């Protein structure tokens, strides 16, 4: 069994919600990667009693605890004091920590304020963790079951301290057998449909199956330490087959992938393609998501179908969206001097677009060279949701045209 | 004393660090605003025993607990089961929840998968919280000292449920004495410049001053419960005066404001104006941010200045960006049949745009009727940061043209 690890964050700015606890997320990823099971994150504010009680709880519950925040010079920085009280240790003056802090200020031609002195007080017996970026030293100590490491709350200082001073020592302290995570990233299917399709695949009981639905839906497979590579590949292939071309990327098989745009970027760059886009429902968001890529040369947005028709000289009486989209795609390809053109249209009026209880039907038409690919999606929800989904679905049409042209 | 509130999040994607717990931050902000003291955030994964133990702890420690996640249809969604076990309540079938879920799928012309049925099982005696955006209903119940509300983990669904179903009931359940928060939202000045300007204003010791730098820079003033209204107004006016037209909105004086686009929306809608845009560095993001507004009729993006010149028939030799932008704005106004036109240009090459160590100089030119307003900003950082800042600065030029036209 993996050693159990908890994350503990101190700071009113977290409990009051002024910032999200990104330190906890980063440290957890690091810990999972090397073979810990992260069981809990806890954040508390600046109340000494809360801190003391929490440290005592964790000391009995976890094998390792990574802690951030509360090491600063001000009166609401209580970590060392809380540790001293919780574990019944006196605070002792660390002369080396004090000298390092003096040096930090001297290097910046500043005198160290009196209040910083308290940062040199560490619980007796704790190992000092030097801070190469700021003033607050961290420290580490074992109490009861748990080895605690205390780091600053400033993300850059925390990360540096973790990577330099803590990570290298963890394999010696703990018996680590990292699990292997494989993530299949899909687009175009809901979570429950995916589950139904996957139901046909036998997943060994030692493999954990999970889902995460954000913009894409991710299927996560967690394999135990030293699970045979061929068995991993076989299971991933079986699942990918059930989901067909809805899978746009797979993480954890060696190659690092990214989001949908990263997948498209690879295809477009390899083929040296160029693209022009007309957006409607996604209103610029599709173009915005392609920031940093080389192949999107031109994009435009028009608020209404009437304006679209006017711009591309299409008769007002024309109302077949597929034909209109094909006409526009062809014009874009010529006018913008690109080989790929992507046109997004919907036929509903603006009231429907803005009404969260009504849906719109979005047509995404790709013209790739002389091949067309056409996709139709019904999208509901707030106008913001419609915008995001329309951008994603049209981008996905761009991806799929590489595999499924229909003439 | 304020009632004590805890935040509880369920999900391996949080404990494993795949996402930061932004739900916890958002809910904490909401709770603090209305007069709770938030004492603790806890996140646990998909282990039933951990969930049960935690719910029992919180029931003794807090007056209110806002919970997110674990309400989905899959086997790792354990919240209802954990509540049933922790508080010794049977799960009962909620026919109304079931019907709503059926309707959700029917509205989308889909059959409800079998697996969703489990979402209609709620702990006996719990109050159902309808989910107007997704399938999972939430629920609320009191156990021992604590009133628990369970919401979905999807942020949009969670927020809607909190605002519609939970927030309105809290003042009846708890004795709340909220502090009063006033937020001045500014754009165009850095945090340290703002601090220097504000230094001239005397801030009473019982008023807490804070800053938050995100897209805009916000100055936050926290007044104790029942602080005199005239004293609040006086202090806010004094600070606003120091910051001039960099302040685009003030929250907490009665009227709800929104972001920069909301401020612009008001001005544009009142004047019945219409707008056409040409974007370059912001690549569609400016248009995307205006989603849902009536006045943005047309927007376009071109990757390079050469393409821009080609599109608007401007001589290749022409290189004064101000003159080019004026020419384009005038053309947009005519071609697109709008009274306002906004043109964004930068002169650097693409390598500079993509280099995080180099900066670009972005020109934002507004033509409002026959009045021009011109703003120039130097923007540095990653291409993503340049994109965001360019969108904001050009939008701010649109706002400022209402106050400072220059001919």
Give the key terms.
Molybdenum Cofactor Biosythetic Enzyme, Chain A, Maf protein, alpha/beta, 37% helix, 3 domains, 5-stranded mixed beta sheet, Alpha-Beta Plaits, homodimer, 15 helices, 6-stranded mixed beta sheet, 407 residues
Describe this structure in words.
- 2 copies of one chain form a homodimer.
- Chain A is 37% helix and 25% strand.
- The first copy, chain A, has 3 domains: 4-173, 3-Layer(aba) Sandwich (Molybdenum Cofactor Biosythetic Enzyme, Chain A); 180-255, Alpha-Beta Plaits (2-Layer Sandwich); 262-400, Alpha-Beta Complex (Maf protein).
- Chain A has helices at 12-15, 22-34, 48-61, 79-86, 95-107, 155-166, 170-173, 191-198, 229-243, 260-270, 285-289, 305-311, 321-335, 350-354, 383-400; strands spanning 4-10, 37-44, 64-68, 91-93, 121-123, 127-129, 138-143, 146-151, 180-186, 208-213, 217-223, 247-251, 275-279, 296-302, 340-346, 360-368, 371-379.
- Chain A is of the alpha/beta class and 407 residues long.
- At the A-B interface, helix 2, strand 2, helix 8, strand 10 and helix 11 of A face helix 1, helix 2, strand 2, helix 11 and strand 14 of B.
- Supply the number of structural domains of chain A: 3
Helical segment tally of chain A? Answer: 15
Oligomer: homodimer
- Largest sheet data of chain A: 6 strands, mixed
General shape of chain A: elongated
SS elements, strand count of chain A = 17
The CATH superfamily of the largest domain in chain A is known as MoaB/Mog-like domain
Rg on CA atoms of chain A, Å: 28 Å
Report mean pLDDT of chain A, rounded to a whole number: 92
């Amino acid at each position: 069994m993996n050693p159990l690890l908890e994350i503990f964050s101190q700071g009113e700015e977290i409990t009051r919600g002024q910032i999200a606890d990104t330190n906890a997320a980063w440290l957890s990823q690091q810990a999972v990667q090397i073979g810990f099971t992260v069981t809990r994150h806890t954040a508390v504010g600046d109340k000494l009693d809360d801190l003391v009680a929490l440290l005592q709880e964790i000391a009995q519950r976890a094998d390792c605890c990574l802690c951030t925040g509360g090491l600063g010079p001000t009166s609401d920085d209580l970590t060392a004091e809380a540790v001293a009280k919780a574990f019944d240790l006196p605070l002792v003056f660390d002369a080396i920590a004090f000298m390092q802090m003096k040096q930090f200020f001297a290097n910046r031609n500043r005198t160290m304020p009196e209040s910083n002195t308290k940062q040199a007080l560490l619980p007796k017996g704790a190992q000092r963790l030097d801070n190469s970026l700021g003033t607050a030293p961290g420290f580490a100590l074992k109490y009861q079951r748990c080895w605690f490491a205390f780091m600053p709350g400033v993300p850059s200082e925390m990360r540096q301290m973790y990577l330099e001073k803590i990570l290298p020592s963890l394999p010696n302290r703990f018996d680590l057998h990292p699990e292997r995570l494989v993530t299949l990233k899909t687009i175009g299917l809901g979570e429950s449909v995916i589950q139904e399709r996957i139901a046909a695949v036998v997943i060994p009981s030692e493999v954990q199956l999970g889902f995460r639905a954000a913009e894409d839906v991710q299927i996560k497979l967690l394999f135990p330490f030293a699970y045979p590579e061929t068995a991993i590949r076989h299971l991933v292939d079986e699942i990918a087959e059930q989901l067909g071309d809805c899978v746009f990327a797979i993480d954890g098989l060696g190659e690092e992938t990214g989001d949908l745009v990263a997948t498209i970027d690879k295809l477009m760059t390899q083929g040296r393609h160029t693209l022009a886009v007309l957006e409607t429902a996604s209103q610029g968001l599709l173009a915005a998501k392609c920031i940093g890529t080389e192949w999107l040369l031109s994009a435009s947005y028009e608020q209404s179908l009437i304006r679209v028709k006017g711009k591309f000289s299409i008769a007002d009486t024309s109302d077949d969206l597929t034909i209109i989209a094909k006409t526009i795609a062809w014009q874009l390809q010529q006018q913008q001097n690109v080989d790929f053109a992507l046109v997004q249209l919907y036929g509903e009026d603006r009231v429907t677009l803005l009404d969260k209880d009504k849906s719109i039907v979005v047509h995404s038409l790709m013209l790739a060279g002389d091949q067309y690919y056409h996709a139709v999606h019904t999208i509901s929800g707030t106008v913001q949701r419609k915008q995001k989904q329309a951008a994603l679905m049209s981008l996905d049409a761009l991806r799929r045209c590489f595999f499924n042209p229909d003439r």
